[in-house]
Amino acid sequence: MIDVDMKKYNFYLIILILSLVSILFAVRNHLTINVSSSLPRGVYWLIGTGEITKGDIVIFNIPKKSEKYIHGRKYLKKDVKKLLKKVVATEKENIFRIDDKLYINGKFHSYIKSKDSNGRNLPYLSTRDLQPKSNEFFVLGINPNSFDSRYFGAIKRSEIKNKAKLILKY
Q1: Can you give the residue range of the structural domain that contains 88?
Q2: 17 occurs within a structural domain
Q3: Which residue in 35, 122, 150, 165 has the most C-beta neighbors within 10 A?
């Protein structure tokens, strides 16, 4: 009797494991894991791009001009090819900088650092370089040390791969 129950148990366990593996395989292209402190660490569900508005979290390829900072300075590992950031401004917003301060629509938003935490120079962008043009977005992380649009400028809509929603924070 015990042998029959154990066979049933093993059979159902195998079915359960295969089902879970199948589900994970099916949704793997809809998930990403954020290990950076730029946004809350966790698992994000990727959705289509659709309409992108202020407040959306987007995933995009690391801008070519920023790879030397991000990978060269080991801000992120070389196998990380995409960034996850929050859209804080569109071409409709007025972005400007005064010294080390970033303003959006006349309100102070954050600081722009001239050096990273190791004392190395960061890229300097003028107000003109920061202002998003048509179909561009200004993206920031929540961490004041985030490497984001303050240092590489606005990103083009065509560079955005997906919007993302946090589904599991860790």
Answers
A1: 31-169
A2: no
A3: 150
